[in-house]
Amino acid sequence: MRHYDIVIVGAGITGCAIARQLSRYDLAIACVEAGNDIALGSTKANGGLVHAGYDPAAGTVKASVNARGCALYGRWAKELGFGFKRTGSMVLGFSPADREHLEKLLENGRANGVEDMRIIEDDEIWEHEPRASKEATCALWCPSTGYVDPFEVAIAAAENAAANGVEFWRSAAVDAIDEHADGFVLHTSAGDLSASYLVNAAGNGCADISRMAGGEHFELVWRQGNIAVLDHEARPLMPLYPIPTSVSKGVIVTGTVHGNTVITATAAIHEAGDNDTYAADVEELLSGARKLVPDLDTRRLVRAFAGGRAVIRGLNDFLIERSAAQPRLFQAAGIQSPGVASAPAVAERIEGLIRQAGITLIEKPGYNPARTVPEDFDLASPDRKRELIGSDPAWGRVVCRCETVPEAEIVAAIRREPGAVSVEGVKRRCRAGMGRCQSGFCQSRVVRILARELDCDPADVLLEDKGSNIVYGPVKEVR
Fold first, then answer.
1. Percent of the chain at pLDDT exceeding 70
2. Is 404 helix (H, G, I), strand (E, B) or coil?
3. Mean pLDDT of 254-281
């Protein structure tokens, strides 16, 4: 049985960020994930906004990590090579009552350490975003807001962690945890492993992990959010927010690092595990978006999806602490919005808690904070494209026409560590299938490449997780 100094449970953006943060040190570390890939939970069903930090109530854990996480994104993006745009954002107001709310957000943001915010009006609103509603009378301008692809961040952090020695156990659902005086034994669907310390970053499974490890007992509420994705725009929109509600930031319209428009997100309590997309929720998104951007062509919808936020009942905050009930357990639980924005700072805080617990952290020789960024054919110069095709003809075989993804890029996505093992895993790494046709043209070819690279039958290739087989029976030209 393999023993680790620290085991992180959960490979969403939080768990992968923690893995990357701790990979600097001379420790045996594993990251255990129930799904067969990175970022399959709330991280995948997320709009990717890097919120600035003016929204969480002052004095909360959220407030303490949100602004810090937002500030860290510039360095993380440079080191890990993921897409990040710090565009600034506006919360639009349409009435005197809205302006009063903006004043409160401004005051709260300053208390949380968010800099350079101010309330603007009239033409200055449209100088920042010409497509913002002309009905808006005022706005809270915040220059530090930005956006990322959250699963790209998680994958980048995981790849860097793996390059620095962290081992990833995927398809390893934790069934039970035995406590011992010197640590834990985790019984997983991929086998048993032991750990001196645990970090609970299990997202919507964090209550179960805490209970099994002898930590705090709490209950999660499934706050479901629907998200809509529109086709590429000539110019990505700046993030535009409405006046927030007591439970969410409301329906937000934002651009993405790849030029789409995302409308995010509804917030309603549903049964745990409900990832269905509902027509009424999608219409709520589209109508809310049109209030902020009246000329938004919502007919250009290419995808709608849903996920659940890990909300601890009775605690509208993050739980980031060393467990009082089990001192070998560190909690990074209840990470709802703004989890993406906070991830680098949550990782930083977990490192600090581990130090406070007296665990020796010695930087390992050869630690490298920089990730080797995979080649993106679509963004390469003409000369570089010719060079790539000359080195390997697979660079010239375009599989995904919408996003211009060649076969060589798909192969690289599978061979990286931890690499893609499903069609959706390929999509998250190199965008094959992300475009207008949503895999209508390229999926069969991606299945064929996966079958070849994984040395399996096409019928064994999965769309996503266990049981999502695409092909049944013989496939043309494949025997």
1. 99
2. coil
3. 93
Angle at 138 between CA 133 and CA 139, to 5 degrees: 85
In this prediction, residue 466 has a pLDDT band, given cuts at 50, 70 and 90, of confident
Give me the CATH topology for the region 377-460: Arc Repressor Mutant, subunit A (1.10.10)
Q: What is the CATH number of domain 85-146+221-309?
A: 3.30.9.10
**Domain definitions of the chain by residue range:** 1-84+147-218+315-373, 85-146+221-309, 377-460
For residue 467, count other CB atoms closer than 10 A to its CB.
7
User: 88 near 115, Cβ under 8 Å?
Assistant: no
Q: Are 395 and 376 spatial neighbours (Cβ–Cβ below 8 Å)? A: no
pLDDT at 451 over 80: yes
Do 1-84+147-218+315-373 and 377-460 show the same overall fold? no
Lowest mean pLDDT among 103-117, 174-188, 206-220, 247-261: 247-261
Is 151:43 a contact under the CB 8 Å cutoff? Answer: yes
Question: Which residue among 51, 180, 217, 270 is the active-site one?
Answer: 51
| pLDDT for residue 478 | 52
Tokens of 299: 């007919």
CATH placement of domain 1-84+147-218+315-373: 3.50.50.60
Closest CA to 429 of 458, 452, 400, 455: 400
Q: What are residue 19's phi and psi, to 5 degrees?
A: -60, -45
Q: What does the alpha-carbon distance between residue 382 and residue 388 come to, in Å, rounded to a whole number?
A: 10
- Name which of 259, 236, 264, 241 is nearest 47 in CA terms: 264
Query: Which residues does residue 142 pair with via DSSP β-bridges, in sequence order?
Result: 89
Closest CA to 86 of 115, 113, 58: 115
What are the tens digits of pLDDT across the range 388-438?
999 999 999 999 999 999 999 999 999 999 999 999 999 999 999 999 898
Q: Three-class SS string for 254-296?
A: EECCCCCEEEECCCEECCCCCCCCCHHHHHHHHHHHHHHCCCC
Question: Annotated catalytic, 51?
Answer: yes
